[in-house]
Amino acid sequence: MKMSAGLTLEHLLRRLSVGQRIAIMLALLLLPMAALSVVSLDVLEHQELDFRQSVQESINALLPLATLEHYLERAQVDELEAETDTSAPNFTALTHNIDRSFSTIETTDDGPDLPAGLITQAQRAWRDARPAVQRLVERIRPLRIGDPRLSDALSRKDIQQAIHDVSLARLHLAAVIKARYTHAIALRHRELRWLIWSWVVTLSVATVLIGLFLASILRPIKALETAARRLGAGESGVRVDMRGRDELTEVAERFNEMSENWETTRQALITETAMDPLTGVLNRRGILAALAAALNAHRMRDQGLSVFMMDLDRFKHINDTQGHSAGDRALVWVAGKMRECLRDSDHLGRYGGDEFLAILPGTGASQAQAIAQRMQRAIHDGASTDPSLPLVSIGIATAPDDGWDADTLIGAADAVLYTCKQRGREPEPPS
């Protein structure tokens, strides 16, 4: 069924020219690759942009908390005291930045890449840490570094509590960012796998279709090559069965015409080589080939076979006194009479000059004798009233009595013919 469907599609493709099929093959290969290349570049650029945004968001979210934790740790070890008149760190701005970070998380907490449990824990940690930070901010705001009241305002217990709460909020927020990053990586991997499979499927389909297009081109070429090789080897009846409207179908049709013309010419050459052009019977080569084939066939079946060696009487006189045209007419007439007396399965050939050889397959000595006598009477009756027509003498040889070899049989028949001509025209039975 698959083979039939493939051949049907191949026949449909042959309705297109070779140039059109090549153009379609290129389109099947290049257009999907171009489209996938554009999509791949777009996906990769989108992933790169998302990665940069993710890094920036991570920095924006974690940096305020880390900075706030750092300043609180400095305050814990009294590093806020300085010799200069530098203002205290802007805890209020840091607090507002952290609030914005968590507010951003709250506005996107329904997104598929945000784990809700981690977000809730991070928000709860910041809500727990914010009051302690806010109390520190309110106590630090009216003071300046170098003010002796700063140490009294910042109790170590409050700072430690604020540091603990801020650190806990930072850890939870880092866990949220890590989870978002892990989810984003998994999403990117899925997109990449989708791209890879898209490439694989597209190229596979394109490969199958291109294979069918190539088969529709290469299979006819292979068929033509095989047919040409068979024809070159001398095989007859070679034809290329091809249907379509393309150039290769046209070539196949011309090839079939050429093969048919060649067979006609070859048959004409074979006929011309094996046939005597004057009498229309086999020539010497043709009758000897027929004798060899008949001997092989009858030897295997162990059947008898007889041959007639025939020579025309008074032919030389006709040729000398009436001319070669009369001699040619005499040969044509006597060949026709011989053919009338022989059977359809018998073979008749002009052995040379005015000598004829007949092959009678499956014929014994007595039957061959009867046929020879009938032939002589028919020729005698026709020639008795017309001196321009010849008579005939016949020598008979029969296999296997006289042998299975062609030369032996012809020699035996020729010997009988010689004896027959010496005694008269009555054919001598084979010895």
What does this structure look like?
The protein is an alpha+beta fold. The protein folds into 2 domains: 2-209, no CATH class; 276-423, Reverse transcriptase/Diguanylate cyclase domain (Alpha-Beta Plaits, 2-Layer Sandwich). Helix content is 71%, strand content 7%. It has 12 helices and 4 strands. A 4-stranded antiparallel beta sheet has the order 2-3-1-4. Strand 2 (347-352) and strand 3 form a beta hairpin. Helix 1 (2-13) packs across helix 6 (156-232). The longest helix has 77 residues, at 156-232. The radius of gyration is 57 Å and the shape is rod-shaped. It starts with a helix and ends in an 8-residue tail after the last helix. The model is unreliable at 78-87 (pLDDT under 50). Its cofactor is Mg(2+). Keywords: Membrane, Transmembrane, Transmembrane helix. One of its GO terms (cellular component) is plasma membrane. This is diguanylate cyclase. It is an enzyme of class 2 (transferase).
Topology:
Blueprint (H helix, E strand, L loop, with lengths): L1 H12 L4 H59 L14 H17 L8 H25 L8 H5 L2 H77 L14 H28 L9 H18 L3 E9 L1 H8 L1 H18 L5 E6 L2 E7 L3 H19 L7 E9 L6 H18 L8
Antiparallel strand pairs: 1-3, 1-4, 2-3
Helix pairs in contact: 1-6, 2-3, 2-6, 3-4, 4-6, 6-7, 9-10, 10-11
What's the gist of this structure?
This protein is an alpha+beta fold and 431 residues long.
Annotation keywords:
71% helix, 431 residues, four-stranded antiparallel beta sheet, 12 helices, 4 strands, alpha+beta
